[in-house]
């Protein structure tokens, strides 16, 4: 654990619709510049059979902004939330950066993790790859757009992909000055970026059940990364979703949802 103070994470807590449902909840952790809001349609499916908690990591969504983006630091935040909700063990799903948070949680506090689902990330260090995204968000912050059309134009000066711009726009909120402003802690994220692209924290392998879902058109979990993955997650089962990129839960939502349900129900 770290000596950085934990933050009180914002979260969505959805009870199971089935009163006889499994009592082990599913905790969902978003990726870089994502939020719990991105997962609402999936949560509605998963809550049919179990309680689902989707959280906002520090500097994301509605959670507080704070220095420190080490994975051990973010794990401390998540454990503090589990403690607050009196959740002793949970199935933990993490996408991208959130997948590294989930892996770190499983390695640092395996007694809190009933099973692990890692979505399109490997426990390796990646190269810098978000300079255009950060420049686009800085452009919005400086341009102070009055509406989403103006914001999209500012984002478009650095990011060509419209789906990416739409995703980034989920981080915009109208402030008291009637300007579309960023709700993410962009400066804290940029200062912590080297930690974000680094390896997960923890000293030991996680020996529990693990499902790794990767996009068939994504490079984030390449075959040459699998030895490092299996060293850290020896029981990992790797499943490739066809016609899916890095945002595989958006590209193939039904296949993704069904894979998670089948895996968690089998535990």
Produce a short descriptive summary.
This protein is of the alpha/beta class and 267 residues long. It contains 11 helices and 9 strands.
Q: What does this entry look like structurally?
A:
- By secondary structure, this protein is α/β, with parallel strands linked by helices.
- It has two domains: 11-126 and 198-265, Rossmann fold (3-Layer(aba) Sandwich); 130-190, no CATH class.
- The protein has eleven helices and nine strands.
- It has helices spanning 40-46, 71-84, 97-108, 131-143, 148-156, 162-169, 186-191, 193-196, 226-232, 248-251, 253-265; strands at residues 11-14, 22-29, 50-55, 90-95, 113-119, 172-174, 180-182, 210-215, 236-241.
- The strands form two sheets. The protein has a seven-stranded mixed beta sheet.
- Strand 4, helix 3 (97-108) and strand 5 form a beta-alpha-beta unit.
- Helix 2 crosses helix 3 (97-108) and helix 4 packs across helix 5.
- The mean pLDDT is 96.
- GO terms for molecular function: hydrolase activity.
- Keywords: Hydrolase.
- This is Alpha/beta hydrolase.
- Pfam families: Abhydrolase_1.
Q: Give me the side-by-side strand order of the main sheet.
A: 1-3-2-4-5-8-9
Uncertain runs with pLDDT below 50, 5 residues or more? Answer: none
Shape: globular
The SSE string, one letter per element, is EEHEHEHEHHHEEHHEHEHH
Q: Strand percentage, roughly?
A: 15-25%
**DSSP helix fraction:** 25-40%
- CATH architecture classification of the largest domain: 3-Layer(aba) Sandwich
Using the coordinates shown, work out and report the CATH topology of the largest domain.
Answer: Rossmann fold
The whole-angstrom Rg is 18 Å
Output mean pLDDT: 96
Number of structurally distinct domains? 2
Pfam families: Abhydrolase_1
GO molecular function, one term: hydrolase activity
Domain AB hydrolase-1: 25-252
InterPro entries: AB_hydrolase_1, AB_hydrolase_fold, Epox_hydrolase-like
